[in-house]
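Entry for beta-D-glucopyranose complex. Fields follow.
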Amino acid sequence: MHVVRFVGALALSLAFIPGAGAQGLVNPATEKRIDALLAQMTLEEKVGQLNQYSSAFDVTGPAPSAGAQKVMYDQVRQGLVGSVLNVTGAEATRKMQQLAVENSRLKIPMIFGLDVIHGYRTMFPTPLGETASWDMGALEQSARIAATEAAAAGLHWTFGPMMDVSWDARWGRIMEGAGEDPYLGAQAAVARVRGFQGRDLGALDTIAACAKHYAGYGFSEAGRDYNTVDLSEQRLRNVVLPPFKAAAEAGVATFMNSFNEIAGIPSTGNPHLQRDILKGEWGFPGFVVSDWGSIGEMVPHGYAESLEHASRIAITAGSDMDMESRGYVAHLAALVKAGQVDVTLVDDAVRRVLRVKFALGLFDDPYRYSDVAREKQALASPAHAAAARDVARKSIVLLKNDGGLLPLDKGAKTIAVIGPLAADKDAPLGNWRAQAIAGSAVSLLEGIQAAVPSTTRVVHAEGVKLVTGPRNFMARSVINTTDRSGIPAAVEAARSADVVVLAVGEDAFQSGEGRSQVDIGFKGLQEELIKAVLEANKRVVLVLMTGRPLTLGWTADSVPVIVEAWHGGSQAGHAIADVLFGDTNPSGKLPVAFPRHVGQLPMTYAHKNTGRPGPEPGVTWSAYTDMSNDPLYPFGYGLSYTTFTYSEPRVSAAQIGRDGSVQVSTTVTNAGQRAGVEVVQLYVRDLVGSLTRPVKELKGFQKVDLQPGQSREVTFTLRASDLAFYTAAGKWEAEPGAFKVFVGGNSRDVKETGLTLK
Ligand code: BGC
């Protein structure tokens, strides 16, 4: 295997100037200014640049005490803090910046970071949901708006996008990513990086992005958060890294490493990931921040004896900034003085941090992002709300529509809006909600009320509560399992109505960090409510609001209509109503499968064939004896109010050379009565490889808009390089041989052709 060893990061990253995608992060003039600054800095001041503290708000690890906050302020004044996270607002950030710039010797501005994951004040759908739009323009726009709001509130940096591929919906953080597929994940990563960073990091409405969590965090054993990961190099390269590599190529300014180990080495201390691959092979010129406390966590991992030891391991492995372990600030200078850490490692890390600060324009004006007037205007923008509604309706996935119950008739006499999430104005905001105001979302009930004429009666009944007790990032949701008192009223409402809209799923804080579950079915009394309502009225439209896929069990077979609306953000209720009443024809497609049963997890459409794919008489084969191998709803799946047909796919040539390409086309026809949008998907299968290859891999997609009866030829260019993978020889290349080529509207229902790579 070819591995670029760490030979001095400075030389490597400078050598990379011509290709450095990180928009102006590396240029000779800045490097000179950094040289001059480094020459003036004491060792302690250098280490300070690598030290990041959290302000008290919304901490994800143990909260810093009042004493710790005082230490932080003292160190900020001394120039010993390079960055603060969780300080927000134009005024607060200005004051915090003043402490550093007016008191410290070298007046180096700090960089302020926050988890701006799917919006800052205006919430867009949670990232997994938003990816269901398969609309990269929409993803870019949502990140753009989040950046505009955050930058006006004094922030310079978001800890996003999260791009951990995951095949396991037990893992609560699956809601933060782009789902199960590395290709879709890479497209989403690039769109989001572009959205956050814009064309120019120095512009006042852009912020630095952060590719996280590097790497393998989505493959934690048994879907349990922070758990062990053991990945082969081939899975790492072929499945986990593509979004990260794409983000690096798109110029993402920073990376965050991950809490997990891979094959016994915590990512924070992993030189192969951070030095060889990221800073070596990819020539990444920005900096790597640790995850919260992940340097210190190498002690309980059993990889470091002490925080001092962990700090030495981390800086050597390429972790540039210490988020809240307080290890670098305590030990790094002494480690350098004792000859245990080479000062060039510290210099290189500081250089990387300073590059980002220069690119953000903080040395020209450290307060430029902290603008109270701009903040006020940006946070109240009606255009942002309109965009959130638009992205939310594009993200909605129609999973089932038996009997064509949808779209609903606005002229219905009575609509019953039932369920624990029906009138909930908080759950749609989702987890990782930055500065959203609790309870500020448009509820489904409000959305429906706003959509219908005054002649339509809308009745509401909660039925059952989903959670009781506090609802926030730190609190574990307490599920209601006893209070059924609202069910009779819900049944009554259902009975009196022409149609029932029943909203169930997850509270905002049931998915997200630290929210792994062994059971991803309906929690609490929701299934009881569904049964009772269905007995009273068969015309039920089930609206799911979830962070992740759920196992729907009995409900999937029994309820005629199912709509996945995710945690749809600030405008969720309006967006769902747009779809339910047919003002928007749904076009979302699942970025991750809905399993039939939790026991199928982890699962992906891009699995290997195995030696016993079956079914075959006379042998046992790789299948469950008590359930199908297949998911309930596969990757890429989603219905529309119209239907689309596909012609047999055509290839422009049956053979291509090593540098060649081929056109793959199919004619897609809107065979129904309504205009609609279809996500046309291209998959391939490499039949024989030096390493076994998946049965299908997504290689392209296009969204097409078709009027009733209209046909369109959809053409993909498939290059030989698109067939490349990380081979047994440790190279990223395409291997000659036969390939199947598929097109279709999801990963299961496809039409097939083939080609040969010479
Ligand atoms: C999470 C990161 C997040 C950080 C800062 C950690 O617990 O894993 O994704 O960016 O906290 O809030």
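NOTE: The longest strand covers residues 676-686.
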